[in-house]
Design brief:
heterodimer; A: mainly alpha; MetI-like fold; 2 domains; two-stranded antiparallel ribbon; 13 helices; about 80% helix; B: mainly alpha; globular
């Protein structure tokens, strides 16, 4: 009996390996290896007068941080991601609260509307924004019609255009985790605070926000890293004046053919995204997780 | 009982929510308004009414070719991912083996990894191999970014499935394959469907992988639309955008109504 069990267990282990093998082999071959090779390439080669030279160096990284042109793009990427995250938080909270506490009809409308942009192709979405934000677009027409502005400038091809379009699509990743966290807040806590005379604003500040921090941390992480790694939206709406790191990688590969520098920029992007996903998220959950137990 | 919104605070919140809803819908609705404008370039407000831009777009060789190509690519990718993703999910959920956590981490890691970076790394990888098969490259790239979704949706379904029924089938003499095909397959159908729809959308809509791996003969629809945006300034572009948005709405309705897959589950952000 005991023998049989062991054999069966061993067999199950073997079958388990066999089942995951195709996907694992595929991802190791076409995901792990290529990315690893690229990271190695960023420190094992450099471009001199257009010729790739194989040698260990950190020149590609120094170049990203030293040359003004590139450093500006790096800082802009962080700034645009930061602004997108902050604005998503500001408009995400009211939406999440209405989604959880509002009428069922509202909850349903908000869920569908918030998720809608994710189903629309990114190029099409960006195009939709160009129609609104251009000099002769919908926004300026409205401003003029309402008499709010005489000859408004254009938002298109500025960082703000990129921020607006990024908030538009990534807001879902803020609202849904927030709504999840808020829905777990015990109604009795709210009630107690109200009975003790807390205003709506105090209630929000002292109860809703602290108790929804785990959701906020997840939302912040998703929105920040997705914005930092985006390409199409900054390319179409930011134009040549507001390129982010993604556009820089594309330029280096497609136009300059400097693969090693492109690899270095890509590595920096990986580090930013992994940092925010692993380090930041872990820290927040360690320090604030206790405030609101996540089931 | 959940606390309800009431009083002045409720009106403020509903007002804010209405504004955000308008903000989110605006760029999805505006192209439709512009697409019927009887002018030679897009302008707001639109002038006149015509459907000729739709006629122009729907007979555009490049648009149709790219559309069909993307459909084909997404179908191939979905099939492959469904098979290897389902195998992997069954292995992860139903079997214990050393390194299981590591495998799970690996299979989900393309989710947080910048897609653009995966694309450029693959381009370098393939050019080192000296491979020039663009279609194959695109399939590989899309399979990589789709695997996590199918693994996740199918795993979730497996965890909810009643194992007793599987055990009963085994006891009654069905082999593992037969049990999977006659029992488990039906139990995990929602996960399979959600995974398939998700995978299809990801592949069909992908830009940051295709931009590196496509070539002139293997050009996807998102890349083609990007080219159109830079080339055309007439309402035809708005017509294309409108058609694409209608296509997304169709997918949404299909999945929600016919396949009964919750859209929230689809996007994988089921309120955490």
């Amino acid at each position: 009996m005991r023998m049989g069990r062991t054999v069966a267990t061993e067999r199950r282990t073997f079958v388990g390996f066999l089942l995951v093998a195709p996907a694992v082999i595929f991802l190791v071959a076409f995901f792990v290896v290529p990315n690893f090779q690229m990271v190695v390439y960023s420190i094992s080669a450099r471009s001199e007068a257009g010729v790739m030279i194989e040698s260990w160096n950190v020149g590609n990284y120094l170049r990203l941080f030293d040359v003004d042109l590139y450093r500006i793009v790096l800082i802009r990427t962080l700034r645009v991601s930061f602004l997108t995250t902050i604005i998503s938080i500001i408009i995400g909270y009211p939406l999440a609260i209405v989604m959880v506490r509002g009428s069922d009809a509202w909850a349903r409308v908000i869920t569908v509307v918030v998720l809608a942009p994710l189903l629309v192709n990114v190029v099409v979405r960006a195009y939709g924004w160009t129609l609104i934000l251009s000099k002769k677009g919908l926004l300026n027409w409205m401003l003029t019609w309402l008499g709010l502005a005489e000859d408004p400038g254009q938002i298109l091809y500025t960082e703000w255009a990129v921020v607006i379009a990024s908030v538009h699509v990534f807001i879902a990743f803020m609202v849904l985790p927030l709504a999840g966290a808020i829905s777990k807040i015990d109604a009795a806590v709210d009630e107690a605070a109200r009975v003790l005379g807390a205003s709506e604003w105090t209630l929000f500040r002292r109860i809703t926000v602290p108790l929804s921090l785990p959701g906020l941390a997840v939302g912040t992480t998703l929105v920040f890293s997705m914005t930092a790694a985006s390409f199409v939206t900054p390319q179409i709406l930011g134009g040549n004046f507001s390129a982010l790191l993604g556009s820089l990688i594309e330029q280096q590969v497609m136009a300059v053919h400097d693969w090693s520098f492109a690899a270095a920029i890509a590595t920096v992007l990986i580090v930013i995204v992994l940092f925010i996903n692993l380090v930041y998220l872990t820290l927040v959950q360690r320090y604030f997780g206790a405030w609101a137990p996540v089931e | 009982m959940k606390p309800r919104l009431e009083g002045l605070g409720a009106w403020v919140l509903y007002g804010l929510a209405a504004l955000v809803v308008a903000f989110i819908l605006a760029p999805l609705v505006v192209p439709a308004l512009m697409s019927v404008s009887n002018t030679f370039y897009v302008k707001f407000p639109p002038e006149g009414f015509t459907l000729r831009w739709y006629a122009k777009v729907l007979t555009d060789e490049e648009f149709l070719t790219a559309f069909l190509f993307s459909l084909k690519l997404a179908a191939v990718v979905t099939l492959i991912v469904l098979v290897i993703g389902t195998f992997a999910a069954v292995g992860l959920v139903r079997h214990q083996f050393p390194g299981r956590g590591l495998v799970q981490g690996l299979l989900l890691s393309p989710l947080i990894f910048p897609v653009l970076v995966t694309g450029v790394a693959l381009l370098q990888f393939f050019s080192r191999l000296g491979s020039g098969e663009a279609f194959l490259h695109l399939v590989v790239g899309h399979v990589v970014i789709c695997v996590p979704y199918v693994v996740r949706t199918v795993s979730a379904s497996l965890m909810m499935a009643d194992r007793n029924i599987e055990d009963a089938a085994r006891t009654l003499g069905a082999g593992p394959w037969r049990t999977f095909w006659r029992v488990t397959r039906y139990q995990i159908q929602p996960g399979l469907l959600a995974g398939a729809v998700f995978c299809f959308i990801i592949s069909f809509d992908d830009f940051p992988v295709a931009m590196w791996l496509a070539d002139a003969a293997n050009f996807t629809l998102p890349l083609q639309i990007f080219v159109f945006i830079e080339r055309y300034f007439d309402p035809g572009m708005a017509a294309i955008a409108t058609l694409m948005i209608l296509f997304a709405v169709l997918l949404l309705v299909l999945t929600e109504r016919i396949l009964k897959v919750s859209i929230k589950k689809l996007v994988g952000v089921e309120a955490a």
